[in-house]
Amino acid sequence: MPTPDSQEGGAPALRGGSARAEPLRAALPLELGLLGRTLLHAAAVGTVAGLFGVGFLFALERTQSFLLEGLAGYEPLRAAGEGAVRAAAGRSFHPFLLVLIPAAGGLASGVLSRLFAPETAGGGGDAVIEAYHHGGAIRPRVLLVKPLTAVLALGSGGSGGREGPTMHIGGAIGAWVGRLVPASASERRILVAAGIAAGISAVFRTPLGAALLAVEMLYRDDFESDALIPAILASVVAYAVALVLLGPAKLFGHLPHSELVPAHLPLFVLLGVVVAAAGAGFVAVLRAVQRWSGRSPLPSWARPGLGGLLMGALGTAVALLMRRWYGGEAVGLGVFGGGYGAAQVALTGLRGLQPGWALVGLLLLLAAGKAVATALTVGSGASAGDFAPSVVMGALVGGAFGVAASLLIHDPRVSPTAFALVGMGTFYGALANTPLAAVVLVCELAGSYDLLVPMMLATGVGYVALKNVLLYPAQPASRSDTPAFRAQAEHLARVLQGEGLLACHVLRRPELAQVEPRTPLRALLAAASAGARQQVLVVAHPERGPAGLVDLKRLRELPFEDLDWMLAADVMVPFLAVGPGDGLPRVARLLLSSELPELPVVGEGGVEGFVGWPDLAPAAETGGAAPG
Do residue 427 and residue 486 come from a single domain? Predict the structure, then answer.
């Protein structure tokens, strides 16, 4: 094989840097360059997402404190570990304002979304999944518009979650980092997934569950394994940032220990069926509101205001009923905001609420109210997520099931807390097609894996029962159903017609010389201008041969100022080549998996040429020889 300094196609060889580190690399065969790049990218995504998440939570608390507590005199019940920026005590309760404030917040959210970034309307989960499967492109303005619209919708009491918006914000951060650093199309998508994980981890503080959720929610029946490690790294960094700035408090505090009772496993199977039915009912209500909103004569920016008005009326009615039935301490037990306070009641109870059939009815009533309130908020287009409401509804249904089971079978070992936790994971895991992530998320929230077996059982039952119910319609079934795969499959289908053709029949002779890993990018770009058709450069060590490939199209997309300090090693991908005797179907499959525009053809004499999609399809159709 020729050295990188040899002349290929008449182009002068480029040299750069020193080889002093080569003996060390030979003695220590670790992918330190790849490791460093992965850590750097994940740390950047996690740090920015962590800071954004903490700032978002603070702004949300401030807004809610001013609007709901300060103006309306209404304080939603909070979970034990939720931070609170409280308004001055002694505010009188104003039900009329409580009806209007969500309408004003929804209207403001709708106007801002429509004016600056229509993709920020709605929960955020579906939008980031769709962006992921269309190249990972998310406009930078989402980083500013989504937090603002979500703070307005949720801070005014809209029934939705903060995790959905942070999924979208985190994905936008990943896409932004993918534009700043040299990254291929697949790497940019992976950074979007890492951003999703970091966004959830920053606000939910469940680092492993967040990472699993980010790679599991992208498909209905598949798993983005390539994104798992970057997602874990970004999630850990975001969690560390949130931990430093917010402290280590658990969302639901220290929950009572739940012991696994094998005799209760059939009850958890039944719980999976009941929760699945409740989940299907919620999605049906959500889709009905979305259809109603879509047919409304109101402009799209005004619909969240109408949804907020109806939701405010419902939430105020629930608050007044709670005050009438259980006194002033229960007035905050309602459907405003994320609703984690209601989930806390299902888990640990509330003073004045005695276990009995009345409590079962109350928890189910709250679950139904939360479903309608969330559908009105999210379905009308307000920027609020569906993650928290799903978790809350699951806890309420599970808690009601647990209380009913204890009343019916008279077994003191039946723990409503355990059924509430399992219901929490089953509801979202089954609806979002994320059973594994939901199991880990809830175990992290509980602070133990005592309920791992019943959680797996109930979530598996719910997942199978809800196979035809989608919370996120943008989820493709698997990788083979994604737009990118379908477009590549069309290329492959044409190439398969040329089964007898080999790579040597269609290769193009090299036009550019190989370069060393320490070659500055500006030199690469200058050399690339001499090549008429070659789209990929071979990066090779002087002694050890090929080390990687540089996609010249991606090189030209880098910011101009980066060309002075970045090297070929910073932008190269692992070396991949085909042989002259490889058939066109194999060449096509390697092009599909690498996402490179072309690959080098390496024979006994070294790099003999290059072959790419433009060369394959015409040759496959005509059975002809090399195009030039």
Answer: no
Judge whether residue 38 has pLDDT over 80.
no
Question: What residues have CB less than 8 Å from 204, skipping those under 6 apart?
Answer: 163, 210, 251, 441
245 and 323 housed in the same domain: yes
Helix crossing, 387-409 with 340-348: angle to 10°?
Answer: 20
Evaluate whether residue 12 is within a structural domain: no
> Which DSSP string do the residues of 531-587 spell out, in sequence order?
-SS--EEEEEETTTEEEEEEEHHHHHTS-GGGGGT-BHHHH-EE---B-TT-BHHHH
Q: Average pLDDT of 197-223?
A: 92
Residue 316 is assigned to a structural domain of this protein: yes
CB 445 within 8 A of CB 206: yes
Per-residue pLDDT band at 89 (split at 50, 70, 90): low
* Residues 373, 159 contacting (CB under 8 angstroms): yes
Residue burial 119-143, b: 16+ Cβ < 10 Å; e: rest: bbbbbbbbbbbbbbbeebebeeebb
| 525 and 390 inside one domain | no
| Separation between Cα atoms, residue 129 and residue 382, nearest integer Å | 18
> Is residue 404 a part of any domain in this protein?
yes
One domain, residues 476 and 537: no
Question: Strand 536-541 to strand 573-574: parallel, antiparallel, or no bridges (unpaired)?
Answer: unpaired
Residues 433 and 515 in one domain: no
Residue found by looking up tokens 């015409």 in the block: 618
431 lies in some domain = yes
Asked which of 451, 481, 511 is the last residue of a domain, the reply is: 481
Find all residues with CB under 8 Å of 552, minimum gap 6, and list them.
524, 528, 531, 534, 535, 536, 537
Count Cα atoms within 13 angstroms, Cβ side, for 570.
19
Q: 3-state DSSP call for residue 197?
A: helix
Q: Return the higher-pLDDT residue of 66 and 615.
A: 66
> Among residues 578, 598, 395, 404, which one has the least CA distance to residue 503?
578
Among the candidates 481, 500, 529, a domain finishes at 481
Count the domains in the chain: 2
Phi-psi region of 10 (alpha: psi -120 to 50; beta: other; left: phi over 0): left
How far apart are the C-alpha atoms of 215 and 208, rounded to whole Å? Answer: 11
Q: Which DSSP category does 330 fall into?
A: G
44 lies in which domain range?
35-481
User: Based on the domain organization, do 533 and 406 belong to the same domain?
Assistant: no
| 25, pLDDT greater than 50 | no
Give residue 66's identity as a one-letter amino acid code: F
440: exposed, middle or buried (C-beta count within 10 Å: 0-12, 13-18, 19+)?
buried
Q: Please give the Cα distance from 491 to 450 (Å, whole number).
A: 50
Distances from the Cα of 396 to the Cαs of 340, 365, 422, 505, in angstroms? 10, 9, 11, 66
Answer with the residue of higher pLDDT: 351 or 334: 334
- Is residue 463 pLDDT above 80, yes or no? yes
507 SS3 class: coil
The CATH number linked to 600 is 3.10.580.10
What's the CATH number where 99 sits? 1.10.3080.10
Q: Is the pTM of this model over 0.90?
A: no
First-last CA distance in the chain: 23
**Same structural domain, 315 and 358:** yes
Looking at the structure, do residues 256 and 219 belong to the same domain, yes or no?
Answer: yes
Q: Residue 469: count other Cβ atoms within 10 Å of its Cβ.
A: 17
